[in-house]
Amino acid sequence: MTGVPVRYKTAREDSARWDGFEFRLGDIVISARSRSGTTWMQMICALLVFQDPELPAPLSELSSWLDWRTTPLDQVLAALSAQRHRRFIKTHTPLDGLPSDHRVTYIVVARHPLDAAVSLYHHYLNLDVRRLSQLQGLPDPGPAAPPAPLRDWLLSWIASDARPEEQPDSLAGYIRHAADAWSRRDAPNVVLAHYADLSADLPGEMRRLAGWLGIDVRAGRWPVLVSAASFPHMRARASRLAQGPPGILLDDAEFFRRGRSGAGRGALSAAEISDYQAKVSSMAPADALAWLHH
């Protein structure tokens, strides 16, 4: 987060929308690749900020997605300016594409790339792509083509050599996002979180994050807040927690499909997993890869 930020731009997102953004003391920026736990972390931050499982508004209103091009930038900035609670802002942009501000806490959430990719595959199937394209002023893509089988799609995703700046949801994009955050892990305002850790010890991770953010929670409130951050609770309230304008998801509850790990590795053979490991071994330092894949 020093020097000129890297620009990440796709048909649906543009990190340049952060240029000139006016931060406030205490702002929280949640940075994660798609399907890596972004909404989960938004929910955790909402529960810590408001300390009530009944949020005062839909999650996407409380936690704006600044770099998503569906909503005009002036509307997003106006909504953020009007907020009086401690702001927690969503982004899929890696830290090297964001402005740096010492008053801000940056939370980066990572997930095993193969698990994230499986979740991404099912997420695409749950999108009304024609409605989404209409909202973004893009040409009508026509009726959706039949999806490739999961294994075939996953192998194609692994084989792609797309550039992260142009396709952040590529394998290289996931690796770069996590490796860049790992390289900043000692910064006083950067917090790393991992999907597997949230799954294994949600109460402990929520307490750790509260400590980082300087938020005091009364002991008696923890059980209800942790319960509200669980996948069954979020799935049951999907209409208020799922991201995006109404109508772009075919089924809101499917936005919170399973919340488990291991699906990516389970879809591939041992030889295919070995090929995957060989490919990623040269894409980032070993310690960053070990953290990402743990």
What is the compact description of this entry?
With 294 residues, the chain is α/β, with parallel strands linked by helices.
Q: Report the structural category.
A: alpha/beta
Count every beta strand, where a strand is a DSSP E run of 2 or more residues: 4
Hey, roughly how much beta strand do the residues contain?
A: 5-15%
Mean pLDDT: 89
Count of alpha and pi helical runs:
15
Name of the level-1 CATH class: Alpha Beta
Low-pLDDT segments, ≥5 res: none
The name CATH uses for the topology is: Rossmann fold
Range of helix content: 40-55%
Keywords:
alpha/beta, Rossmann fold, four-stranded parallel beta sheet
Question: How would you describe this structure to a colleague?
Answer:
The chain has a four-stranded parallel sheet, with helices on both faces. Helix 4 (113-125) packs across helix 6 (150-159) and helix 7 (171-183) packs across helix 15 (286-293). The protein has helices at residues 38-50, 59-62, 73-82, 113-125, 129-135, 150-159, 171-183, 195-200, 202-213, 222-228, 231-236, 238-241, 263-266, 270-280, 286-293; strands spanning 28-32, 88-91, 105-110, 190-194. The relative contact order is 0.18. It is an alpha/beta fold and 294 residues long. The protein is built from 15 helices and four strands. The model has no long low-confidence stretch (mean pLDDT 89). The chain has a single domain (15-293), classed as 3-Layer(aba) Sandwich (Rossmann fold), CATH 3.40.50.
